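Tokens in:
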């Protein structure tokens, strides 16, 4: 698959088949992603890959904590959640389309809460990834993590695998740290679901709108 084909094929998958993903294949994807660029080549990414009993324990303990302390949702690192236009409208458009496919009516708080909890089940994917970064690094290194994750997602798409990058793993990070024994020196940045997409799940038909080039690019000197 050409890189542009992988870009067009990739989408956020939120329903997976239970089929396992071979460890050797996951290692190949990471081996490709490690070629991602980073500022002065510091390569700040760290990845915890979970499957089997460890994945199940992480899911169980995070969900249990979520029910007993639902307000423990602050990110471990500074993160603004303020929205303004046009970002608010884009977010709401996506949410309306996704929740429509999931048949969750507007205002159904219980159903919304359950669906948000699917993040901590990795949406049923057999493999989850948790991305961390050394706390001593500055915000520029967060860009490096993003590029690494994008490289991983494109490599996965090339193999027919589905992924979903999940900022939700910023929340309830204390449980994730404890279960995976993540050092206190690391921030827990994001998670990702990895598996074989369920082609029959309506939510996987969702394709997010993208703005045209002329809406965000300005060309100087041409």
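Residues out:
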């Amino acid at each position: 698959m050409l890189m542009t084909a992988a870009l067009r094929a990739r989408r956020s998958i939120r329903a997976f088949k239970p089929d396992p993903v071979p460890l050797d294949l996951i290692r190949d994807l990471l081996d490709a992603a490690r070629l991602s660029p980073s500022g002065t080549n510091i390569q700040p990414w760290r990845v915890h890959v979970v499957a089997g009993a460890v994945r199940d324990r992480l899911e169980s303990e995070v969900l249990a904590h979520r029910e007993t302390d639902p307000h423990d949702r602050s990110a471990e690192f500074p993160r603004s959640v303020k929205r303004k236009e046009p970002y608010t409208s884009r977010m709401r458009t996506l949410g309306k389309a996704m929740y429509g496919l999931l048949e969750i009516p507007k205002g159904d708080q219980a159903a919304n809460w359950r669906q948000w909890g699917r993040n901590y089940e990795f949406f049923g994917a057999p493999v989850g990834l948790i991305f961390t970064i050394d706390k001593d690094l500055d915000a520029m290194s967060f860009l490096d993590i993003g590029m690494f994750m994008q490289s991983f997602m494109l490599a996965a798409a090339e193999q027919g695998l589905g992924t979903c990058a999940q900022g939700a793993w910023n929340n309830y990070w204390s449980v994730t740290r404890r279960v995976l024994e993540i050092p206190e020196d690391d921030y827990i940045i994001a998670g990702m679901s990895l598996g074989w997409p369920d082609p029959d799940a309506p939510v996987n038909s969702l394709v997010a709108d993208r703005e045209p080039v002329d809406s965000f690019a300005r060309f100087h000197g041409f």
